[in-house]
Design goal:
Chains A, B: This is Nitroimidazol reductase NimA-like FMN-containing flavoprotein (Pyridoxamine 5'-phosphate oxidase superfamily). 2 copies of one chain form a homodimer. The first copy, chain A, is α+β, with helices and mostly antiparallel strands. The first copy, chain A, is built from 4 helices and 11 strands, in the order E-H-E-E-E-E-H-E-E-H-H-E-E-E-E.
Chain lengths: ~220, ~220
Amino acid sequence: MDAAQPVSDYPPTPRTTPTRKRDRARYDAATVHAVLDADFICHLGFVVDGAPVVLPTIYARVDDRLYLHGSTGSRPMRTAAGDGLPVCLTVTLPQGIVLARSALHHSVNYRSVVAHGTARQVTDPEEVSLAFAALIDHMLPGRAADCRPPTPKEQAMTTVLRLDLREVSAKIRSGGVNDDPEDMGLAHWAGLLPLARVRQAPVPDPAMAPGTALPDYLRAAAP
Amino acid sequence: MDAAQPVSDYPPTPRTTPTRKRDRARYDAATVHAVLDADFICHLGFVVDGAPVVLPTIYARVDDRLYLHGSTGSRPMRTAAGDGLPVCLTVTLPQGIVLARSALHHSVNYRSVVAHGTARQVTDPEEVSLAFAALIDHMLPGRAADCRPPTPKEQAMTTVLRLDLREVSAKIRSGGVNDDPEDMGLAHWAGLLPLARVRQAPVPDPAMAPGTALPDYLRAAAP
């Protein structure tokens, strides 16, 4: 509808085209990647015996790939190791509560990404090692190089999955209050209550050798 | 396994019994409700054409019931209005990153709730009104009484769903680092990086009448 053609690095599909509020959808890699890089916990949906299951789990993005991991023995991991596991992976960053004069126009500002696809087990040892490091660095950039890497035995306890970013979209609700004109004179407080996730001061393990320096990658207060 | 029998207000089922780390599971209403009351955004999973879909949406808890809402015309809402919509509703509160000396023992402290069941449309007008108010008060307690309530026409644009809490469990990972004994001497910083969601200063709508007082329910800084 706009004069400028929106960027669409990830071509929209029926599943990534909202039936309502299409103006909130984004398909450009920059937006999708920015949302994915701003968090490290996703909600992973899959189907078990015809019913939905949604579990929180950590993820990492490397280029156009997402990595997940889980215990080798768990049911979704075993399914993924076979024919692959159809998943819907969703990341949501709440950014504020929109307080309108009318109940109906209350809303939430957020950025989210929904990715559809089939998660498959990574078997190449180099890619497994890369994924392990990415999962740790996605939580805390710089950390993977500052801990003991997994041994082959430890790697064998864990299944690493890859989900290629193909059928994916971001959704963004931003800005202020959208009340109906006839409600604008109502005397209720209206506006935005911003929300943010913050990192608090690191708490050292009591068993750590006294005097161990706080690493640079932990000094940054902001997430 | 403990001497004291754990409280189990929501009897465990195969779907709410983890295959691993069972000690993290809780089935008492106090814990489940506390997690549900600490957030207002859930990830709702359902199945469309055999494939999983996970979308973020707001929810409210009233006793042993969860309420959700959505546009009357949307596909999941139409399904729910018919035979009901089998869902998995998940709420996750990240509480910190656990930085172990070994990559494998990195973890996340969190509290989560996973509820399975069939979401059904609420048709009783009184319960619909109660659900609307609960959805707003769950975001910000006290707000529902301080905005214009929905008109019958506005209510008709929205489908309200109810999910009874029956097959539900909480999971909690808390505490510190669990490194293997042979790694305890490694010189890597170890400990916890706490995470928290905070509310920032409210931002008034520029169109609001100057001098409109900030309501008491917005004065509390803590979420």
